[in-house]
Amino acid sequence: MSQNPSRLPALLGGYPIKEDLIPSIICSALYVALLPLFFYRLIRKTSRTTVLFTVLAHIVERSIVFGLRAAISPEPRSDEGFNESAGLMEYLQTTLFMGIVPISQDLAMLVRTILVNATYGSEAAKEIPRLQEQALYSESESDVENAAKSSPLDWREDAVSLKTFQMRSAWSFSGTTVVQEEAEEYPDHPRLRFLFRRTHTGMLFIFLVVFITGLIGNCRLILQRNNPVELRENEILRYVSASLSVAVLLFMNVAVIWARSTMPRLNKNATRYIFLITALLLISAIYRFTVMSKHTTAYYSFESSAQNQLSAKVLFYLIGILPEWLAVLVCLSINVRRVFQTGYDGDTRWRDETPAEKERRLLREKEKELKKGNGLITVPVISKLSRGRFVLPLISS
Fold this sequence. Notes:
single chain, 3 domains, two-stranded antiparallel sheet, two-stranded antiparallel ribbon, 4 strands, 60% helix, membrane, transmembrane helix, transmembrane
């Protein structure tokens, strides 16, 4: 099957040739090196979160993709050699083109979480466990010592923030709860919280469209290279996929910029990482647009538009691949659970819980603490515990 000599869209990264061997091995090794960092974050209880699980899939896939790219790089450049590896080339093109999608999906969840967190009022925030985790991170030993000397209240060693103190609570099974002091009372915004959640649902739908159009446009790009009509359709699908992914990234940042100026409770530190990761992903996205605009007479030719020259290869690895890797590195180098206040799984609610749902949740938590043998139990709590068990309250002086 010969290649159409008129208009073949250039391949992202060009045709794998012998000059790709060493860079591909290095890229594969760099992604493999991220796996220990990911599992380190996963193993530690204080940084464990499911928000970045899509990034794990991206790391594994990139490690495999560049290993395969290195494996086929010594093959001869000819119609026969190209036809033998056409299926593999389609897979490589599809995964390379779609690289920013999984990272963008996790970024969207991080944006949703910090925006939803910012809508909780001062009182409502005390009922959200992930917003109270920050108090449990140690700042310094001196903070603990100073707090213990200056405060008449009972300070815990793991709640060392100078804005955090311990007080007796009727809802705390151990008799204590962590409460955040704030300089002023902030109102609750349930309708805005609902809007952010539905907006994220809309973004997930757009990501699905990005995935489908990118998958179809790239996996058929080589197979249908001799059909000008279908080839043009595939090019259009690639542009649609790339354009939508960039639009979603820009929309997320516009929303964050708006929130920074209108929502005083917004986590400003987390927004800096949002901007940094987005900038890195946009670099890769813009590079894809420049490659998609080029055409060649043969995928393995050394025309400037074929992306097989040394300068084009350098740009591919430095501008097309390195920013993606750096974006993943940023996500793993920080404690996402702490910086973005995601808790274990971020904000995954479809809506706020009703009073009845809240009461059932609190009772389940009390039962769980009871099984662990923790603390002070009140008679009303005993009367509401399920499974017909009777427990005597613990009396302490």
